[in-house]
Amino acid sequence: MIKAPATLRLDRLLSNLGYGSRREVQDLIEAGYVLLDGEAVIDSDEKIAVTPDLVTRMTVEDEPLDPLPGLVLMLNKPAGVTCSHKEQGPLVYSLLPERWGERNPALSTIGRLDKETSGLLLLTDDGALLHRIISPKSNIAKRYDVTLDRALRGDEAKIFAAGTLMLENEEKPLLPAAFEPVSPTRGFITITEGRYHQVRRMFAAVGNHVTALRRDRIGALALPDDLAEGEYRILREEDLAKVFS
Question: Annotated catalytic, 45?
Fold first, then answer.
């Protein structure tokens, strides 16, 4: 038996997508600014089938409907921007359309990059997906491009791969990590954990200091060369599958 699609009142659907309060959305609908298949829908109580093709069939004020719940974004996070809803200073959410901050369910980052780390960041409103990706059981690899203050000693790859490195003030050694030097002061490190400032602390433990850190891969999902800093892209299902590859 084919399951019928979920339905929502039009005003609730648009309010949940951040278009305004229920009253504001009702005014928008009654003014004829919401079209479905080219025809104005002026009854805010109308039940709408929430199907994937709705974003191609509905417009609001002559613009395509915003993405439906289940949204997953890839963002190229600039350094100096914080992964938080509450902290002061520039936030990653300020890089997205303003009304997306009013979506319900809300968008959240999948894990975090610290303020001075740039690169690949995922966001979603799907709580189950978020927890699946960040769960230690998923063992998802994350690769970082690391620039260092001082020249490498030469034994870092062996130390990181051993699975015995202890970080300061911790009692459990790190899982093995892969390190590939590409110059005396730069390399790629791949980890499967997400401890606080882990990569920076790993290099501190071997007597070095990270001056720049950029994540370029999660699983097999790579940050595209044509996605500029501060820009985002909606992930397709086939791209999301690469996270678990």
Answer: no
The tokens of 146 are what? 């690391």
Q: Which of 27, 66, 114, 239 is catalytic?
A: 114
Structure tokens at 231: 């820009």
> What's the pLDDT tens digit per position in 164-204?
999 998 999 999 999 999 999 999 999 999 999 999 999 99
**Per-residue pLDDT tens for 103-150?**
999 999 999 999 999 999 999 999 999 999 999 999 999 999 999 999
Mean pLDDT along residues 59-75: 96
ω before 64 within 30° of 0 (cis)? no
SS3 208: coil
In the chain, at which residue ranges do the beta strands (DSSP E only) sit?
7-9, 34-36, 39-40, 47-49, 58-60, 63-64, 72-77, 108-109, 117-124, 142-148, 178-183, 186-191, 210-218, 221-222, 232-234
For 193-245, the pLDDT digits (tens) are 999 999 999 999 999 999 999 999 999 999 999 999 999 999 999 999 999 98
DSSP state of 3: P
Hey, which CATH number is domain 141-218, 3.40.50.720, 3.30.70.1560, 2.60.40.10, 3.40.50.970? 3.30.70.1560
Q: Whole-prediction pTM value?
A: 0.93
- The CATH class of 7-64 is alpha beta
Would you identify the CATH topology of the domain 72-136+225-243? Answer: Alpha-Beta Plaits (3.30.70)
118-144 per-residue burial string, b: 16 or more CB within 10 A, e: under 16: bbbbbbbbbeebbeebeeeeeebebbb
